[in-house]
Amino acid sequence: MPQERRQAILEILEKSAKPVKGGELAETLGVSRQVIVQDIALLRAEGQSIVATPQGYFLIKNYNNNEKRSLRVFACQHDNKGIEEELKIIVANGGRVLDVMVDHPLYGELKGNLMLESIDEVEQFLKNLNKSGAEPLSVLTKGIHLHTVEASSQVILDNIQEELKKANLLVKS
Fold first, then answer.
1. Which pTM value belongs to this model?
2. Cα–Cα distance measured from residue 39 to residue 110, given in angstroms and rounded to the nearest whole number
């Protein structure tokens, strides 16, 4: 039965065009969210490319369509008040925020998958951040962090960079 359930998780993720929340998987399959978390861990250990984001789980191949996309890493620095402005600048200008990374002095690179591409997703992320009481990764590094951003062209990434610079959100070189 657990193997059939894990297969069902894969089938649900394969058919979905957007991330699926763990709670939705749990309800659909009649198990607890913790069972889903364990099943996802086992599927990852078997080599499945499942990514966890604030919006839910997804298979990488579902997000890697044939459309040519450009990537750029932005080095940003701001306090917690700058999070909303930074993320909204990126998505309002046509970018998708794939992740946030910090370089921790003890653990090295720490990364959180975000996959934010709309103002609504940014607002939901901020609401969840506030509700959880958790601190963003950037508190570990005095506000310095990296975002990998995806867009349909380098021109869009150039525009995002210029807007982040105007807002004084980029690390000064």
1. 0.74
2. 23
Distance CA 136, CA 143 (A): 9
Residue 6 CA to residue 135 CA, distance in Å, equals 32
Q: What is the DSSP letter of 139?
A: G
* β-pair type (108-116, 50-53): unpaired
Q: Is residue 138 a contact partner of residue 145, using CB atoms and an 8 Å limit?
A: yes
Q: Is there a contact between 144 and 138 (Cβ–Cβ < 8 Å)?
A: yes
Mean pLDDT within 81-99: 95
d(CA 173, CA 5): 50
Q: Which two tokens stand for residue 9?
A: 């998780």
Q: Are 33 and 23 in contact (CB under 8 A)?
A: yes
Task: Kindly write down the DSSP assignment for every residue of 117-133, as one continuous string.
Answer: -SHHHHHHHHHHHHHHT
* Residue 146 near residue 68, CB atoms below 8 Å: no
